[in-house]
Amino acid sequence: MAYLLGIDVGTGGTKTVLFEDTGVVIQSAGAEYPLYQPQNGWAEQQPEDWWNAVVTTIQQVISVSGIDSDEIKGIGLSGQMHGLIMLDEHGRVLRPSIIWCDQRTAKECEEITARVGAERLIEITGNPALTGFTASKILWVRNNDPETYSKCRHILLPKDYIRYKLTGDFATEVSDASGMQLLDLKTRSWSGEILEKLEIPSEWLGRVYESPEITGVITGEIARRTGLAAGTPVVGGAGDNAAAAVGTGVVTEGKAFTTIGTSGVVYAHIDRMIVDPKGRVHTFCCAVPGGWHLMGVTQAAGLSLKWFRDNFCKEEMDLARQQNIDPYIIMTEEAERMPLGADNLYYLPYLMGERTPHLDPDCRGAFVGLSAFHTRSHLIRAVMEGVGYSLKDCQQILVEMGADVDDMTVTGGGGRSSLWRQMLADLYECPVKTIVSQEGPALGAAILAAVGAGLYPSVQEACNVIIKRDQIQMPIKENSDRYLKNHPVFRQLYHQLRPGHPIGFSQ
């Protein structure tokens, strides 16, 4: 029997899954770690926390499964995108990683735009300068912590730091590299023009591979520590959303998916490069060689519901512990008892600024229309609907750009909620599907490893064998009509709360 290992280095934790080469899950393990916010709008994590989680979860899946590690034919990596890891000449971490949802780099984005030119930047990298992307973080360290910057010799992304620890190789792949804002999307290689204009040494960046290509092998030292076999190939893998696309079978034109994790994403595969000149959605290289994808991002999707749970749902969490169930199940049941529209209560999910469609790192979350009539259950429903409206914003722009999003799969932790899936089906006015496997990015990473190991000839053919469709939820016309009436109200609230308005957002 041939086995594959998929490792997903997420924001809330790492998940390692052992699969058969047909996609059947043999064993999985997860480990959580903290997110640090030293200041409002900042977000950091410790790379060593990721590494410890990876080692622990690999050890667990191998020991519990009881398989011979020689039967693992390949390892794929997935991870949160955009995070900045700076290493010194000895490969030691110089500072905490500034991760994807950090919003401190507005001035650096202005600097990037001034150095490169707004139109030229989008032409090369497919996106305007954004606070969440890696390039602005590099400049922030240079501008604010020159001592650390002077010691830097290597720059890696989160999953690529794990690759370095596993194999000793400094490498990345096209999907994750696209989110650094240093890659030429047409040539799928580092942009000499961008690096020169931003004065970032090219030798600090790892070699760029296609996602299914083998980038290195497990070293003897790591084999002894984890239980893996020395020489096991590690493929390029993918950024979390590109890996989720593979893990849901979104690998050909006409297919799309929505994920509700910490952030929310609406993602469509395209066979030709399309760029939004307004920069409202991202264009990246995807994990399928020669392909690209369009992606709209809601910064705080599942994070919004988690924030509400942690701060306002102690009773639900206590009851969940007594019943040994997930507190989100109880919260969803409460939301289901509330009417569509939450009795005219709206929630704006801008806890960490926003990307699509507003490109505004300074906007903030809000409940609007709150009265003494409303209950906690109303607020839970409003949070879920607010995330849904924001994802509708993303889907709407992809449609405007010509992407076909009629074949929609939903994944991520929030995708397990039938209520949330129904909201999306109603808002998108199209069927919403799930797949049998719930492993998402980890499965996608394992599929890429299967292709790299030669078990399948292509990503598309591997997905045809491995991905199995599950539930389908059809839109309810009455619900769609009401949601589509409410959606413009939701969109207008952002503009009414902008700085300069009498009740606008402020820092």
Distance between the amino and carboxyl termini: 57 Å
Rg from Cα:
22 Å
Q: Can you give the helix content as a percent range? A: 25-40%
Strand content: 15-25%
> Any guess at the CATH architecture of the largest domain?
2-Layer Sandwich
Average pLDDT = 95
CATH superfamily of the largest domain: ATPase, nucleotide binding domain
Tally of DSSP β-strands: 24
Provide the spatial order of strands within the biggest beta sheet.
Answer: 18-19-17-16-22-23-24
CATH T-level fold name of the largest domain: Nucleotidyltransferase, domain 5
Number of helices: 18
Q: What oligomeric state do these chains adopt? A: single chain
Helix- and strand-based class? Answer: alpha+beta
What characterizes the major β-sheet?
Answer: 7 strands, mixed
CATH class of the largest domain: Alpha Beta
Describe the global form.
globular
